[in-house]
Amino acid sequence: MEEQQNDLGFEVVHFGVNCSGREEAMRQAGLFLRLFEILPAEGKDSVYAGPLVELMKGNGRGTHGHIAVAANNIHAARAYLESLGCTFDEASAKFNDRGGLIVIYLKEEIAGFAVHLLQKETIDCEA
Length: 127
Hints:
It is a single chain. It is built from three helices and eight strands; from the N terminus they run H-E-H-E-E-E-E-H-E-E-E. It is α+β, with helices and mostly antiparallel strands. It has an eight-stranded mixed sheet with strand order 2-3-4-1-5-8-7-6, covered by helices on one side. A hairpin with a 5-residue loop joins strand 6 and strand 7. The chain starts with a helix and ends in an 8-residue tail after the last strand.
């Protein structure tokens, strides 16, 4: 099982935290800037505080937010997780311009966080 997980290349790439709106997301990003000198980057639906913290401009998926887990091959990762009993929310699937799956959420939350798989070559894209 460990060898298969290594082949899948699972890696937590960011945490999304639900905020009440743009103002709160910007305020929280400001704290990362003041305390840790991490510059914020504002996007359409969120503000990033560095590459690992995504502050949502409103309640996104998950009770508290979401966790993005990248994989070398999203299809193989999905099949592996399904073999462990996980189910996926088909409505959450996002595709690239070529029609390839790049994001899909598990139906189950972990500790109040939604979890989505992310195809590794799309890490620099907003998911």
